[in-house]
Write a structure and sequence with these properties.
315 residues, MetI-like fold, cell membrane, alpha+beta, 10% strand, 9 helices, OB fold (Dihydrolipoamide Acetyltransferase, E2P)
């Protein structure tokens, strides 16, 4: 009974700390005379402005008599397209329009800039996560290799990447590597994140492999397995279980580090937040919302990893 009462007492302490934190935030906003305008935020997450249908090229518009369809005839060419399914017509019959001009609007809910930024962050992080795992696995195996060249290259990569700031690496990938190889901003950003995270993944994998007793490798070799087979079927599965928590932490850092690509021509969640702040003049509401969105991503990943840990623990 005492144990149960003590447990509820600590739950009360937890709630009390949260209440005090909320009061502190409210007092801070009152001190700077800040007016909270949360009503401005939902439209930047999802809105009912509808989807605009834009002109794919320069041309003249021919509107049907019933105004339920229009035909765009190319200005200097023979192409023509018929557009239907819109609710609001934004041009008139015979109008001259240019590429990307709005022709009509189809009503319905559409994602706002913050949601689009969240989607960009998710795509960028997912691509970087996959390639960082592959790169980290190769570099991690290189860090325990007996071949001096392989070991030297893997060590140089890990030390060089871990010893320089991610922001500097993003600039190098975007302005130098991206220019030389003609990479898109998305590819350059994903590559920079993958290379940076891969160095840390390599060290995690190296430590995980070295934590497995050497007897495991010797037992596998005595059963007739080659070194690659023993590494793949015996050592790596055991090392993966041990490295799962630090790998999860590194991947969570990857999602948060992706905010640095906002310095490039990519509208990720952080850059979308800056643009919304510029248009709403509501910095507190916007950045609290952006922080919550990042928390949803990292929290979902943490939950997935916890479930995977429990499942592997029972195998």
């Amino acid at each position: 009974m005492q144990s149960s009462q003590r447990r509820w007492m600590w739950y009360g302490v937890y709630v009390l700390v949260l209440v005090v934190f909320g009061i502190a935030v409210h007092a801070a906003s009152d001190r700077v005379a800040y007016t909270w305008r949360w009503d401005r935020i939902p439209q930047y997450i999802v809105n009912n402005d509808g989807t605009e249908m834009r002109a794919p090229y320069d041309g003249f518009v021919a509107v049907a008599p019933d105004k339920k369809s229009l035909t765009l005839k190319e200005l200097r060419g023979s192409r023509h397209d018929t557009i239907t399914g819109f609710d609001v017509l934004l041009v008139g019959d015979g109008d001259l329009v240019f590429q990307n001009d709005a022709l009509a609007r189809k009503s319905g809910l559409v994602a706002g800039p913050l949601t689009l930024g969240l989607w960009m962050t998710l795509k960028l992080s997912a691509v970087a996560l996959v390639f960082s795992m592959l790169l980290g696995l190769v570099a991690g195996l290189g860090r325990i290799a007996r071949n001096p060249a392989v070991y030297g290259l893997a060590t140089t990569y890990v030390e060089l990447i871990r010893g320089t700031p991610l922001l500097v690496q993003i600039f190098i990938f975007y302005f130098f590597v991206g220019t030389v190889l003609k990479l898109s901003a998305f590819t350059a950003g994903a590559a920079a994140l993958a290379v940076f995270t891969g160095a840390y993944v390599a060290e995690i994998i190296r430590a995980g492999i070295e934590s497995i007793p050497r007897g495991q490798m010797e037992a596998a070799r005595s059963l007739g397995m080659s070194v690659p087979q023993a590494m793949r079927h015996v050592v790596l599965p055991q090392a993966f279980k041990k490295t799962l928590p630090p790998l999860a932490g590194q991947f969570i850092n990857l999602i948060k580090d992706s905010s640095l690509v906002s310095v490039m021509a990519l509208t990720d969640l952080t850059k979308a937040g800056r643009e919304v702040v510029a248009s709403t003049f509501s910095p507190f509401e916007v950045w609290f919302t952006v922080a919550l969105m990042y928390l949803v991503l990292t929290g979902t990943l943490s939950l997935f990893v916890r479930r995977l840990e429990k499942r592997l623990a029972h195998d």
